[in-house]
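User: My instructor asked us to take a sequence, write out its structure as tokens, and then describe one feature of it. I'm not sure where to start. Here is the sequence I was given:
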Amino acid sequence: MNGGAARHAIIIGGGASGVLLAYQLLQHPASDFRVTLIEKRADIGRGLAYHTGNLEHLLNVRAANMSALPDDPDHFWRWISAREATRPLCPDPFCFVPRRIYGDYIASLIEPLMSDRGAPPRLAIVQDECVSVGQGPAGVTVAVAGGATHAGDFAIFATGHDAANAGPVPHANPWTSPSAAGVDRDATVLILGTGLTMVDYVLSLLSEGHRGGIIALSRRGLMARPHRRVDPERIAEADVPFGASISVLLRWLRHRIDLHVAAGGDWRGVIDAIRPFSQRLWGELPQASRRRFLEHARAWWDVHRHRMAPEVEARVAQALASGRVSAMAAKVTGVAPNPAGALVHYRRRGESVVASVQVGAIVDCTGLVRDPRATSNPAIRSLLEQGLARVDPLRIGIETGPDCAIIDRNGVASPRLFAVGPLTRAAFWEIIAIPDIRTQCAELAARLVDGGATTTTA
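Assistant: Let's start with the prediction itself. The structure tokens for your sequence are:
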């Protein structure tokens, strides 16, 4: 604490990451902070991940692991149990809750703080879009689209997943329901990507009675594996080959899986066992190995690491078996828009012949790792244009220090600008799920309350 006026943190982004950070800053017992939370959506705490109204869109992490509070691991389980006491939705901690309901849970954390009638209130919500951020010796200045500016001591970017820019015509946003996007129910829909975002979009199409064909296409045609009721294997930190090349690391992982399966275990137990070490593994992975992982191994890792709820797997398997959905390993070689939609040219993996298919809509579900230089977020663009941030060499995020401080074009970590959540994936990689983000937010809040960042010049 500074012993004077309350310090002011401006959090840009009111999705799950922003709410968790605001909660930690305001609930910390030694905190002297007030918080301004800037979010352009009316709903606080939902972001892209939890705004869906489709109850078939389930979390891909079991309820037991989805507490928002790292020091209270049963918090979400108690909340969902109390909420659903008269109409059980979640029979046990292994269940997978609709994402919309999880959004209700995140919002419930901030609601008591929003009703705080202090003088002045410690939390202010600004429904607007942040368009630029400036940094000076005495603090930060944040401008919003409506014309107002807000001055503070710190600005923290919690902007979550960057929505895709408009793609080829006709293009449908995967975060918008097919009906709202005007997708013709009788048209063939081409989905680019075969991961969890594709799964959600397929469920949306099916629930809205789509009658046309549904084609899911990706370079390898890999789909997320399902969850099973298995416990993590026990792996000692000393047994993990930190700092090894990606080839050595993957050989070690396959060997551990082979041994575990031979002993009657499930490969999921090994994947889950290394989760506590994943950020350190990424941090100590040589740069060349990081690049090789992203180019050659990421798709395989993702389908084993980010899994489907069993109920979702059953729906998708049924749709594939019935022919309602088809999946292929292929690459799009060209898109020719026409009055009916577009003629898409593609080449199947391992083949040289180019085939074509007429589609009524194209949906980009290729993932959330995008080059920040192509971002549609004006606040991030303002940082890059001013040189207050720089893109990491692999172009998967902006550079941040281990304490979440944003690093400028000269390699200097800011004492006032920070980031949390998916925006920091270049430094942490495994930072898109609540179990990782909750810890990151709690640690950053504690550092800010204690006096700020500790990163030195990069």
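For the description part of your assignment, you could build on this observation: Confidence is low (pLDDT under 50) at residues 453-458. Try explaining in your own words what that tells you about the chain.
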